[in-house]
Backbone:
């Protein structure tokens, strides 16, 4: 085309300039595009991890090198050098030998080829011959000659090959003779440096250099990385636990390991995230752990966005304000509102255990979650809120069916108004006087409501009146009884046990509760004299089920005088708080009451009708009506059994799927907390009505949840439980399925928890709280503090770990139904819990299942020791050897030693103990029951050396057998030993 | 100080005020110094200066500058810099520029024609030939390269948003249509869904299709002009800029959670509650004014509304044919004229209905739910 510059619309020069510039621009833009597509944060992390691994490998190589015995290595190297020098002297011979070998190999190869060629021809001809023979052809004979000829050649080659084999072996032997020593030395050196060689290989793989490095960089380059990149996404696909994205369930594809490369590899525990090893690999992620990574991945426990490979996109959740700031600076972190299952903060990970570990009392390896479950159990959250896993739990608070029989009238109104003012450790929350009821007129209305509730309860109470006390009790004896007979396993009298400053610090939330959790099972008795009628106390402690058939308080089998003493003491514990500290008792407020009633009734009928209805009621009827409305509004029947409300459904929100609730469905009001569900839960638990601040509403529309006074630890534990209650439905095969044995253990454990066995007994590693009170009592008896602490276990209820292994199940069953003394010197006594057959059976099964014992029937050996065994046993029992009667009770006869060492009655053994247990016990008491006072007669590591040499030939096993058999004869009438047989 | 300005802007951008402002500005900028009483003409005459390129450029730059300043406000930035909305913000500038350009070029040509000189297109045309290569293709190719660069950079820096997996139990709030339908969604606020979703969009399309058959003005083919096509340009720009584009802007930037109105600097509070009880014309007349119960017969009940609607569509055409639009009537003939006036009246009915809603809280002029007929 001719260039006609004057006819162009625009100057070609400028157009060309633009063309050039824009082409360069496009090239740069394309480069930017390729970079944007291929630059990924996780690739940087993987490269960082490679560097870390290389560093570690180098460090390992260094340690290995230091470990090698340099002298030995040098000696071997010298050997090798020597041998090589020797070989060099025969270099000519070596060369010859090698040449010979080569020649043999060449010949072998040639002959082998020839052999194979001839063989194939031979086989073909043979076939032809056989065919010809079969057909009866004329040339059969000629073919046969051919075949024979080929056969001869074949044989010749075959023999030649065998000869070559021999020649090869000889030649090789000749060479080895010359180089053998060097080879051997070389092998020894390799063995010594094997570790380093392996690590060097690993280092090559992990930190390639030179050509390898270039090759790998090519493999990871953009557009080439579809072939075999070394930097690639690591994922675990889990079909069984899909992600629910509302319209579909898609398989989970956990890509966390793309950055968290060492999650399931040991050796990186000390490194910073994301390269740190997951804690407790033997429990989580390890190949042999219960949660292997290829079956469980990461997000079923940690939540978050499974398919993300970016820090922000994976919805990591910071664990604290500092961490959040750090992440905002380092990673530009922002809260992601678009993923409905954000990652659990690290301290909240245990919440995820709940969805698979259902039906258990305590989840293993999840202490914070278990604490939360305990708090929920104890405080009875499920009474008002339906919660999955807490259905069919009993009501946590005392029955209000017959309060008139129990309570002193002037106490009840003050209690309802502010329970904690009377008893700071109470579980009953506070309903009145809270921040969202501080408008003018609210205080009067609340007074009217409290009195209304009181009127309602009074009017509906069963008219039970107890007879007056049948005698006088001694408060000092009562004090001693209360401290020693076992009350202090479930109750505390904190006013006498804890200093006032500590109690005040506790109510300010500065210190944890100084009394053990188990001793908060029953109410604190510090001021019980101001609460309960003396006649009621007397009847109650003699037989609790008479007042409340569902109570868990057991019967301590107190005699009449004992009960009178205890009553006298308890009645003396009066409320001594200064008048200023006590709650102002509610005053009658008829106007406020009528206004409140009008407001209630006007919701259904026009105000004049409502007013007329009110005017037609008597004053006490109005109180009762207001009380009924108040109880209805506040849901008291969630915790208490209240007449008239037995079937009423609880008032609280259903919390069974609370962990899945999106934050925007929660009312945050004006509270300045983070806009997340866990932050809301925490705030709600610490101050439930704070979300009403700034809102205007009539009194019946305000928030109703009462104030429990949880401290930070309790509130965050319960928050864990709430976060764990999600709508994820796990398929059966992913959940922890309890075997029959496990179910037996859990069923019994539930009873142990419900009856607070751990208040007195140490079991599962906790409990035995009554020991505190017993130690205090020893101090009061004149012992020093340290002495009292160290001997208190001797005067306390026994540790129950290993009980299933130790006792016969039918004995345990009858003991639980009807306890009898085993250690008669103890002041503390096992109460009668009134277990049903089924409950006792469950407990016995629990203990047996824990120790994997046969249940319920076992064979008891009945062969008493004869002759030599008997003599030996009697001798070992005596004071020259083991001196058993020094400590062990013998029927009615007390042991001869000091009381700190006293041990159970051995005449009960034949009925109580498992025969095989006695021998194992004698062999190593500390292993069976750590901390026991039973002496270790036989050294567990050398029983033969520590056995008495002159008894039964010094054979420890024969001795223990004899002792066990002998103990089994005690208590039987025919053995002639002291003491009648115990039932 | 800044807070006062923000408050003022929020206050002014409330739909009723914003609309009046837009209409006034529209006519003032289209007819500077030509409309209304003398004092109004005096006031608006200086606005004509915007058609000088330098002044226009400065105005444009100022607009961009204030936009940039406004982005420092957290709420403003949250809406405008959202990747979905960046093109719409860009659209504002693009529409403003191209409308200005067309009008400016038109005025330039009018001035040249009035001075007896050849118009710009004629000057540029030369001997009337433009070569395909290089003038067309080369330029196209350069545009292709530059546009590719722009798109690639856009896709790198403005990421397409991915929100949460759809949850049938959780509707997003606000739930907005794509931008090209936001005009219709805004119309839905004022009109019955059938009218706003089917009838009016249908008429828009039909009307646009019918334009070549109605528009008998031979002027303006292939060159910019203003004077020769004032009516046509005004009509079209009113429908496009004031109604369509303006409604999109309202829908994108000023409608927030619960379809509440929020000023550009206002925080999108999903708890905001605005009293909004709208009543039908029949209720206004029968119940509020006359104090009677609503008549049972729908025809009687909606009699006023029906009369009003009939009058609106039947009275103006013959009136206009005899008075203001007499020349058009003669030029177009009755059929075209009436179709044009009908389409124009339908277009006008939208702002009229909007004003009725904002002032009288009127819901429907005619409301016969028995046959799903509401206007």
Residues:
């Amino acid at each position: 085309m001719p260039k006609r510059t004057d006819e162009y619309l625009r100057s070609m020069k400028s157009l060309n300039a633009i063309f050039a510039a824009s082409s360069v621009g496009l090239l740069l833009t394309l480069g930017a595009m390729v970079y944007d597509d291929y630059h990924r944060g996780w690739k940087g992390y993987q490269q960082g991890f490679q560097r870390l691994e290389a560093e570690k490998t180098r460090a390992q190589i260094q340690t290995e090198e230091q470990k090698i015995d340099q002298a030995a290595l040098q000696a071997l190297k010298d050997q090798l050098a020597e041998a090589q020098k020797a070989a060099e002297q025969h270099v000519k011979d070596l060369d010859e030998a090698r040449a010979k070998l080569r020649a043999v190999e060449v010949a072998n190869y040639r002959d082998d080829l020839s052999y194979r060629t001839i063989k194939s021809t031979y086989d073909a001809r043979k076939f032809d011959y056989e065919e010809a023979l079969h057909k009866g052809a004329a040339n059969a004979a000629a073919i046969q000659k051919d075949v024979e000829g080929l056969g001869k050649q074949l044989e010749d080659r075959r023999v030649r090959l065998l000869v070559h084999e021999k020649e090869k072996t000889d030649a090789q032997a000749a060479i080895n003779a010359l180089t053998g020593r060097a080879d051997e030395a070389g092998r020894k050196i390799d063995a010594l440096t094997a570790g380093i060689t392996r690590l060097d290989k690993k280092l090559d793989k992990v930190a390639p250099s030179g050509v390898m490095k270039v090759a790998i960089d090519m493999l990871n380059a953009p557009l080439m990385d579809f072939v075999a990149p070394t930097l690639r996404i690591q994922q675990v696909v889990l079909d069984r636990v899909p992600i629910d994205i509302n319209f579909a369930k898609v398989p989970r594809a956990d890509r966390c390991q793309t950055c968290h490369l060492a999650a399931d590899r040991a050796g990186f525990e000390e490194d910073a995230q994301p390269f740190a090893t997951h804690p407790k690999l033997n429990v989580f992620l390890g190949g042999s752990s219960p949660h292997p990574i290829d079956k469980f991945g990461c997000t079923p426990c940690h939540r978050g966005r499974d398919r993300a490979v970016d820090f922000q996109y994976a919805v990591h959740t910071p664990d604290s304000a500092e961490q959040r700031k750090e992440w905002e600076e380092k990673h530009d972190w922002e809260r992601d509102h678009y993923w409905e299952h954000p990652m659990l903060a690290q301290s909240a990970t245990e919440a995820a255990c709940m969805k698979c570990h259902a039906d258990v009392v305590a989840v293993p390896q999840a202490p914070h979650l278990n604490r939360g479950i305990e708090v929920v159990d104890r405080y009875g959250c499920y009474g008002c809120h339906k919660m999955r896993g807490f259905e069919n739990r009993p009501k946590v608070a005392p029955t209000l069916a017959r309060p008139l029989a129990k309570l002193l009238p002037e106490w009840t109104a003050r209690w309802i108004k502010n329970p904690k003012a009377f008893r700071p450790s109470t579980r009953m929350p506070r309903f009145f006087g809270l921040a969202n009821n501080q408008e003018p007129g609210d205080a009067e209305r609340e007074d009217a409501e409290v009195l209304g509730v009181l009127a309602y309860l009074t009017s509906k109470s069963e008219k039970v009146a107890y007879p007056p006390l049948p005698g006088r009790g001694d408060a000092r004896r009562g004090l001693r009884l209360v401290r020693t007979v076992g009350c202090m396993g479930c109750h505390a009298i904190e006013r006498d046990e804890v200093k006032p400053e500590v109690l005040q610090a506790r109510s300010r939330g500065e210190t944890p509760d100084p009394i053990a959790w188990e001793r908060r099972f029953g109410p604190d008795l510090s001021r019980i004299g101001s609460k309960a009628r003396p006649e009621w106390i007397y009847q109650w402690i003699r037989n609790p089920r008479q007042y409340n058939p569902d109570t868990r308080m057991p019967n301590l089998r107190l005699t009449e005088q004992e009960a009178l003493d205890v009553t006298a003491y308890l009645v003396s514990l009066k409320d001594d708080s200064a008048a200023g500290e006590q709650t102002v008792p509610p005053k009658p407020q008829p106007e406020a009451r009528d206004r409140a009633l009008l407001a209630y009734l006007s919701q259904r009928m026009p105000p004049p009708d409502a007013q007329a209805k009110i005017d037609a009621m008597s004053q006490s009827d109005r109180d009762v009506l207001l009380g009924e409305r108040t109880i209805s509004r506040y849901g008291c029947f969630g915790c208490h059994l209240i007449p008239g409300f037995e079937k009423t459904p609880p008032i609280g929100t259903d919390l069974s799927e609370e962990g899945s609730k999106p934050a925007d469905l929660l009312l945050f009001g004006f509270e300045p907390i983070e806009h997340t569900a866990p932050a809301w839960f925490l705030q709600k638990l610490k101050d439930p009505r704070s979300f009403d601040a700034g809102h205007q509403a009539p009194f019946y529309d305000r928030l109703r949840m009462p104030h429990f006074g949880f401290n930070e630890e309790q509130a965050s534990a319960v928050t864990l439980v709430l976060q764990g209650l999600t709508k994820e439905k796990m398929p059966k095969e992913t959940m922890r399925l309890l075997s029959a044995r496990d179910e037996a253990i859990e069923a019994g454990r539930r009873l142990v928890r419900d009856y607070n066995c751990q208040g007195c007994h140490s079991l599962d590693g906790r409990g035995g709280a009554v020991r505190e009170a017993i130690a205090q009592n020893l101090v009061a008896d004149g012992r020093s503090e340290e002495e009292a602490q160290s001997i208190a276990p001797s005067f306390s209820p026994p540790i129950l770990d290993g009980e299933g292994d130790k006792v016969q199940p039918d004995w345990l069953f009858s003991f639980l139904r009807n306890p009898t003394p085993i250690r008669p010197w103890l002041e503390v006594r096992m109460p009668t819990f009134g277990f049903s057959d089924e409950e006792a059976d469950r407990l016995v099964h629990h203990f047996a299942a824990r120790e994997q014992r046969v249940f319920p029937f076992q064979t008891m050996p009945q062969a008493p020791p004869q002759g030599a065994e008997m003599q030996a046993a009697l001798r070992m029992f005596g004071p020259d050897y083991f001196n058993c009667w020094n400590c062990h009770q013998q029927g009615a006869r007390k042991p001869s030693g000091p009381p700190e060492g006293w041990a159970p009655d051995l005449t009960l053994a034949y009925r109580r103990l498992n025969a095989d247990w006695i021998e194992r016990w004698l062999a190593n008491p500390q292993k069976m029951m750590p901390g026991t006072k039973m002496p270790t007669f036989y050294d567990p590591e050398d029983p033969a050396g520590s056995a008495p040499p002159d008894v039964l030939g010094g054979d420890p096993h024969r001795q223990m057998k004899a002792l066990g058999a002998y103990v089994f004869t005690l208590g039987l009438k025919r053995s002639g030993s002291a003491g009648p047989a115990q039932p | 100080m800044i807070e006062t300005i923000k408050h003022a802007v929020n206050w002014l951008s409330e739909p009723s005020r914003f609309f009046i402002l837009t209409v006034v500005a529209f006519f003032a900028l289209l007819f500077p110094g030509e409309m209304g009483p003398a004092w109004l003409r005096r006031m608006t005459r200086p606005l004509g200066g915007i058609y000088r390129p330098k002044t226009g450029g400065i105005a444009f730059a100022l607009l961009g500058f204030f936009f940039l300043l406004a982005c420092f406000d957290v709420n403003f930035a949250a809406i405008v810099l959202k990747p979905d909305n960046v093109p719409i913000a860009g659209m504002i500038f693009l529409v403003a520029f191209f409308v200005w350009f067309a009008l400016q070029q038109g005025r330039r040509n009018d001035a040249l024609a009035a001075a007896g000189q050849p118009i710009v297109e004629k000057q540029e045309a030369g001997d009337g030939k433009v070569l395909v290569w290089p003038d067309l293709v080369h330029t196209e190719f350069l545009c292709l390269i530059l546009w590719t660069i722009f798109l690639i950079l856009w896709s790198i820096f403005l990421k397409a948003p991915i929100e949460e997996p759809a949850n049938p139990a959780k509707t997003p709030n606000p739930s907005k249509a794509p931008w090209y339908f936001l005009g219709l969604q805004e119309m839905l606020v004022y009109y019955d869904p059938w009218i706003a979703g089917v009838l009016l969009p249908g008429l828009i399309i039909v009307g646009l299709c019918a334009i070549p058959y109605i528009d008998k003005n031979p002027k303006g083919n292939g060159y910019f002009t203003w004077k020769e096509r004032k009516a046509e340009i005004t009509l079209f720009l009113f429908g496009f800029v004031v109604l369509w584009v303006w409604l999109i802007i309202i829908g994108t930037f000023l409608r927030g959670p619960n379809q509440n109105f929020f000023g550009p600097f206002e925080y999108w509070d999903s708890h905001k509650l605005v009293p909004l009880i709208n009543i039908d014309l029949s209720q206004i007349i029968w119940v509020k004014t006359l104090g009677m119960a609503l008549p049972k017969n729908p025809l009687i009940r909606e009699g006023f509304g029906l009369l009003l609607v009939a009058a609106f569509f039947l009275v103006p055409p013959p009136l206009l044919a005899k008075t203001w639009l007499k020349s058009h009537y003669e030029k177009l003939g009755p059929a075209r004229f009436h179709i044009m006036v009908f389409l124009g009246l339908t277009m006008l009915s939208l702002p009229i209905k909007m004003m009725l809603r904002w002032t009288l809280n009127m819901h429907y002029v005619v409301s016969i739910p028995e046959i799903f007929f509401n206007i």
